[in-house]
Design a protein that fits this description.
The longest helix is centred in the last third of the chain and has 17 residues. This protein is α/β, with parallel strands linked by helices. It has a domain of 203 residues: Aspartate Aminotransferase, domain 2 (3-Layer(aba) Sandwich). It has ten helices and eight strands. About 2% of the residues have low confidence. The chain has an eight-stranded mixed sheet, sandwiched between helices. The structure holds pyridoxal-5'-phosphate. Pyridoxal-5'-phosphate binds next to helix 3.
């Protein structure tokens, strides 16, 4: 197999980039929480679950995002997906991006460019320097751009955080017309260098940022859990699109993830359970890598 469909499922090599530290994943704890969730799900009536994802997980994510990413949102603005890529597809669909132009970072996460192309969106790569994507030059050069797909927290793969000035310019650009920003927050609070930058969505006063999170890096790609946070005015439309085109998968893993996050917030910070154990392990791995 070739291209985007090749190279998956292979053993992880020492120092391999792009995957979380294996020893940071609390396998036994997760297995226990997940087994309990499977049992809980098995005994519920066989009705259709909420296509936006399990209620309690959306509530836990809203709380977590408030604490860790500075985003003030309610569970009704959140849709659980199978990861960043599923969130991107949903956003492109709901925003009606087909036939329009998008600014993407150069370099960018490869599925972004091909994903846009497959969704009928013209992707224009914009250089990234030490301040992040060169927003001003891009918006002047491509005046008809309809959206921008960015990793403002930490650019992938360089790790550069977008400067305050560029963040403002980007928000201003989207807020002053019929334009959108898709924020790929794939690393969440897992900042590798310096202080954790708040999510761009936390500064979005115009309601133009679609924030996409994923547990692929903070937990494990094989869990296949991510989420999308949308401005309140668009929540109904996103919910309808999820209900008709891509309902959220697997309630059992949602129940487990909700419990895992709940255990790590903030009581868990003291008792060392769930998500807090994971984040501590990842920080330790990061610091060991720096030493
Ligand atoms: C820039 C970027 N975005 C998102 C993701 C995660 O994508 P997904 O949630 O679809 O696994 C990755 C994973 O490597 C990434 O590098």
């Amino acid at each position: 197999m070739d291209g985007m469909t090749g190279g998956f499922g292979l053993p992880v090599l020492p120092f391999q980039t792009g995957v979380p530290a294996q020893d940071a994943f609390p396998a036994k704890l997760w297995a226990r929480v997940h087994a309990r969730a499977v049992r809980a799900d098995a005994s519920t009536p066989p009705s259709y679950p909420d296509p936006r994802g399990h209620d309690e997980l959306r509530r836990q994510i809203a709380t977590y995002l408030g604490i860790a990413r500075g985003i003030r949102c309610g569970p009704d603005q959140i849709i659980i997906t199978s990861g960043f890529r599923a969130g991107l597809a949903l956003a492109l669909h709901v925003l009606g991006a087909r036939g329009r132009t998008a600014l993407i970072e150069d370099p960018a996460f490869p599925p972004v460019r091909l994903g846009l192309e497959l969704a009928g969106v013209k992707a224009v790569p914009i250089p990234v320097d030490r301040l992040g994507m060169e927003v001003g030059a891009a918006t002047e050069r491509i005046p008809d751009a309809y959206l921008a797909v960015v990793t403002p927290g930490q650019h992938a793969p360089t790790g550069v955080a977008m400067s305050g000035g560029r963040r403002n310019d980007l928000l201003q650009w989207a807020g002053s017309g019929n334009r959108w920003i898709i924020e790929d927050d794939y690393l969440s609070e897992l900042q590798l260098v310096g202080r954790v930058a708040p999510a761009l969505a936390s500064e979005d006063i115009h309601g133009k940022v679609i924030h996409i999170g994923s547990f692929s890096k903070t937990m494990k790609p094989s869990l296949g859990i991510g989420f999308i946070v949308v401005p309140p005015e668009t929540a109904l439309r996103f919910g309808e699109a999820a209900a008709c085109l891509s309902p959220s998968p697997s309630t059992a893993s949602h129940i487990a993830m909700a419990q895992f996050i709940a255990d790590g917030l903030p009581r868990g910070e003291q008792d060392g359970s769930g998500a807090s154990t994971m984040m501590r392990g990842l920080r330790r791995a990061r610091d060991a890598g720096r030493a």
